[in-house]
Amino acid sequence: MYAESERNRLSSREYREFVEAEEKREQEERERPLREAERQLNETANQLAQVMRERIQSGRDNEFSPDAAVAKATMSTADASRFNTEQVRVFAANNPDFYPSEGNREILFSYLLRNGIQIANAETFQRAFQRLRDYGLLESAPAPEPIPEPEPEPTPELEPAPNGMQGFDLATGESRFYTDYEVNRMGAEQFRRAFRMTASDQRLARKSW
Question: What pTM value is reported for the model?
Fold first, then answer.
């Protein structure tokens, strides 16, 4: 009875696994055309982006237009140079993500000149920057160098304290340290005076030391 019940349970589980596998296979078959269409769409988009990238790098960008405020502006070459310098500084101050390398400045100004723009205000620089950035034509700012952690200062090695006893100078009475060697050479009277001990203290000290 138990064996038959176990076979039924296994058969039921195997059947569920079979059904789940079939459903998964059928779903993959249904989604395959969609995945293939998505792949082709991405491939086409990448190809178009590459074409646009090459066009923007070397020719005129028909999808770019300057700010209307300066589209028809006229001024002398000297005035235009001063105006452009002033406006590019305004643009750079408003765009901290723009990396102002020599290469990026050259790319930005060359792009405007290829598109026939001699006079550019901050908004025109902004549009050119966004266009070039979207196609990955600008240099990225280098990653900041890691700040080295300060090396820990070496811990000075402490000299081991000399073995001996603290007592009093026999001549001056001032506090001083006696080494073991000096203590071992003392007579009983010198020991008592050096460490100001009574006779009973001296006996205990000698015994313990």
Answer: 0.52
